[in-house]
Amino acid sequence: MYSLLEVLQSIDNTLLKPDLKDKDYIKFCEESKEQGFKAVCVLPYYVPLCVEQLKNSCVSVVTVIGFPLGANSSEVKAFETKKAFIDGAVEVDMVINIGALKDKKTNVVYDEIKKVVDVAGTFSNKLVKVIIETSLLTDEEKILACKIAVEAGVDFVKTSTGFNGAGATVEDIKLINSVVREKAKVKASGGIRTWEKAEKLLLAGANRIGTSKGKLIIDQYKEKEDNVHW
C-alpha cells in the first residue's frame, strides 16, 4: 500500500540516549543518510554535529524541547527552540507541561506552546511538533491537549517521548486525528519497533513515525514487499 519512498519519508530516525558519544551520532547520521529517511531526531547538544554530517543529504535534523518531562518554564522552551533553529534544526518536538494540563491550566499550556510557535515563525520553514505524552493522559485530557495545540498553531501533534509509559497506539492516532483533522498532522512515536506496527499507525492516520528502529523497519518492509511480489 505504501511505496518505499513514502515509508522512508514518514520516518524520523531517532537517537535520544543520554550516554552516547560523537562517534555514535556520526555513525547514526551515516546510516540515516544511506537509508534516506525524512529526518533524524536527536538531543539538542548534537544538533550542530548532525547538521554538519547531513549537510549534503536530503535528511533533515529534528530536536527535542523540554525533553523528556516537559516541566521546563515556557521561557526556557522558547530559548531552546531559538537555539535549535540557529544551530540548524528544521523541526522541534516540544513536550508539553503535563502537570499543568492535568490541572486544566489551559492558559499555561497554551502560552508555552504559543511561545515556541512564535519563535518558529521568526525563521523560515521551521515546524513545531507538540508531544502530549498520551500514556499519561485520559482520553479527555488528550482531546484537551490537541485542542490547545491546534489553537496555538502547531504543525504536528505527537503521541509520546518514548520515556514515560507506553508509546503510540492505533486508538490514540485515531483520537488525535478526530480532533486536529486538517489543522495539524500527527506523529506517532514510542514503542514502534516493527514495520507491522508502523504500518498500522500509518493506516490509522499518522503522517510521521518516530522510531529508533528505522533501519529494522525498512528491512522488514522490503522483506514483506519481496514476499508479496514473489
CATH architecture: Alpha-Beta Barrel
Tell me the structural class: alpha/beta
Order of helices and strands: HEHEHEHEHHEHEHEHEH
Count of DSSP H/I helices = 10
Rg (CA only): 17 Å
How many domain units? 1
Low-confidence stretches: none
CATH class: Alpha Beta
Question: What is the name of the CATH topology?
Answer: TIM Barrel
Per the principal axes of the C-alpha atoms, what is the gross shape? Answer: globular
Per DSSP E runs of 2 or more residues, the count of β-strands stands at: 8
Sheet with the most strands?
Answer: 8 strands, parallel, barrel
End-to-end separation: 16 Å
**What is the topology, as strand order, of the major beta sheet?**
1-2-3-4-5-6-7-8
- Strand percentage, roughly? 15-25%
What name goes with the CATH superfamily? Aldolase class I
Report on this model:
This protein is of the alpha/beta class and 230 residues long. It is 49% helix and 16% strand. It has one domain (4-229): Aldolase class I (TIM Barrel). The protein is built from ten helices and eight strands. Strands 1-2-3-4-5-6-7-8 form an eight-stranded parallel beta barrel, surrounded by seven helices. α6 runs parallel beside α7 and α7 crosses α8 (170-180).
What is the structure about, briefly put?
The protein has helices at residues 4-8, 22-35, 47-53, 74-87, 98-102, 106-121, 139-152, 170-180, 195-204, 214-229, and strands at 11-15, 39-42, 60-65, 91-95, 127-131, 156-158, 185-189, 208-211.
